Each structure stands twice: as C-alpha cells, then as structure tokens.
Amino acid sequence: MTRRPAVTVRVPAKVNVQLAVGAPRPDGFHPLANVFLAVGLYDEVTATDAPELTITCEGPRSGQVPLDRTNLAARAAIALAALHGLAPDVHLHIAKDIPVAGGMAGGSADAAGALLACDALWGTNTPHDQLLAICAELGSDVPFSLVGGAALGVGRGEQLTPLPVGGEFHWVFAVADGGLSTPAVYGEFDRLTAGTAVPAPEASDALLAALRTGDATALAAALGNDLQPAALSLRPSLAATLAAGTAAGALAALVSGSGPTTAYLVKDADAAQRVAEALRASGTCAAARPAVSPAAGATVLTR
Ligand code: C5P
C-alpha cells in the first residue's frame, strides 16, 4: 500500500458564556441551555498511517492524558473506522495547548480533531451529519468542537443551533493547578441544589443579543455559569483568582464550564495583556493566556 501523507487538524477550546443547568434526567445527565463560544487556544491532532492504533501526546501536563483506547481521540478513530468497515490502524499525535481537565473541552477537541483527521487520512468523506452523530456519542461537548464559532447546545449540550456573533471578544484564561472532574462537578451541583426547585434551563435573550451585536459590556453583564458554585465548592481557591482578574479590570470573571480554568472577558487586546500580567503576578493561577473569540471549528491544516 502506498503511504498516505499525515493529516493535521487544528481544534479550538471553548468557553461557556452561559451554562444553565437543570435537574438531572433519569439517565443522570443534566438538561442544559449551553451557549458555547469557541476561543483561539488550540490543540493539534495529527493522524498518520500505522500498523495499529497508537497515541502520543505533547504539551503542558500531557502526562495526565491517557494514551490507551479510553482516550476520546482513540474512541473517535475506532467509531469512524467501524462506520466504514475499516481497521483503526492509525497513529494519533496530540499537541496540547488547551488546559488538560480544565473545563475548556480539551478532550472533546482532541476527539473532534481525530475524527476529522482520520476521515481525511482514510479518504472516507463522511457526511457532516454522520460526523456530528459520532461526536454526540463520544461526549456532550464534542459536536461543538467540530463546528466551532458560537452555538446554543440543548439536550445534554449535544443538540446544536449555530449562533451569529457580531464581533470579536477578548478573553484571558487563568489555568489552575490540576484539573477538576466534570462528573464530580455535576455531582456537587446536585448536592448543592438538593431539595431546591431547579428551574428548567433557558438561554438568556440578553446574552444572545450581546453575542449578535458583538457588545462586550452587554455580554459581561449577561454571562452566567450554574456550575460555578459547585466548582468553587470543590476548589475554594478559585475565588481568589476570580477576584484578582476583576481587580485587574476585567469586565467580568467566571469559571469556564466545569472548571477549574477561569475566564475573564476584557475590552480589547491591550486589556487582555494587562489582565493576564496581573493574574500571573497575583500568584493565584498556574498560567494566564489571552485568547480571542469566536474561533473556527476543527480545520484540516494544509502544510
Ligand atoms: O458527555 P460527557 O461524557 O462529556 O459528560 C461527562 C460527564 O459530565 C457525564 O458522565 C455526566 O456526569 C456529566 N454531564 C452531565 N450532564 C450533561 C453533560 C455532562 O451530568 N449535560
């Protein structure tokens, strides 16, 4: 067989500008109104022909990424190969820049990247809706990693409607020491809301309007994350990080998804540099990364 050239796919991180969480469904998942925004921090997944499925990973804390078939990227390759009656004989190399277990959908990004990279490597030309269906089976956030931009996710977050975004938004992301387990954060949400009437999740009209018009001040006022109290309960030190970003002039601060990464919406690129510098100097986070949104979804890189 002639050797095919390797394929590299770039995939963005996400921040949830609104994460409205309802009471758990019978299957344990929570109904969501989840407004995803893709941000310009990227992982790259490279697929190369190989005798069997193998994974390598480089980048900050890449030692915490599983290199066996439990890795979501491996599961994506296996699912795509099964759909086409192929063996998943591929080497996947993941260059990580998205914080590991950080609430920015890094694992989901790698799954979406592996799916697109294998589809291109194998020439399987899978229709977009079938790729999306595989993504939804792999995890609630994976479909969004494929499409990027901005979208409202309902159901458990996997049923997407694209949203218009009227301008660029500037952010800083404070990376925490260590990760948080998403199921643990949802479990803490259930503990904290036990005995209360949890309202059905609904997207905020003010937030959708702020995205549509590209108005950062209006977006700052409308940001919301129902998982934030749970993430803060499991990681109380995040309160000091949020306070440091706010004191440095961020328009708003919130936990990204299930955390522990925290997100700071700022006015412009200069403000992003200032807030990032102040967060680093505060000693309350491991790293502070400016990034711009929206970002494109998973994209094959031509080299
Ligand atoms: O879908 P995904 O595998 O990414 O979800 C990881 C975990 O997060 C689930 O096992 C569940 O504990 C929790 N989750 C949830 N409700 C959602 C999405 C995720 O409870 N809508």
Automatic annotation (TrEMBL):
Pfam families: GHMP_kinases_C, GHMP_kinases_N. GO terms for molecular function: 4-(cytidine 5'-diphospho)-2-C-methyl-D-erythritol kinase activity; ATP binding. It catalyses: 4-CDP-2-C-methyl-D-erythritol + ATP = 4-CDP-2-C-methyl-D-erythritol 2-phosphate + ADP + H(+). The active site is at K14, D141. Gene3D superfamilies: 3.30.230.10, GHMP kinase, C-terminal domain. Signal peptide: none annotated. Pathway: Isoprenoid biosynthesis; isopentenyl diphosphate biosynthesis via DXP pathway; isopentenyl diphosphate from 1-deoxy-D-xylulose 5-phosphate: step 3/6. The lineage of its organism: Bacteria, Bacillati, Actinomycetota, Actinomycetes, Kitasatosporales. Keywords: ATP-binding, Isoprene biosynthesis, Kinase, Nucleotide-binding, Transferase. ATP binds at P99, V100, A101, G102, G103, M104, A105, G106, G107, S108, A109. Residues 207-283 form the GHMP kinase C-terminal domain. This is 4-diphosphocytidyl-2-C-methyl-D-erythritol kinase. Coiled coil: none annotated. Catalyzes the phosphorylation of the position 2 hydroxy group of 4-diphosphocytidyl-2C-methyl-D-erythritol. One of its GO terms (biological process) is terpenoid biosynthetic process. The gene is ispE. Residues 71-149 form the GHMP kinase N-terminal domain. It is an enzyme of class 2 (transferase). Belongs to the GHMP kinase family. IspE subfamily. Its EC number is 2.7.1.148.
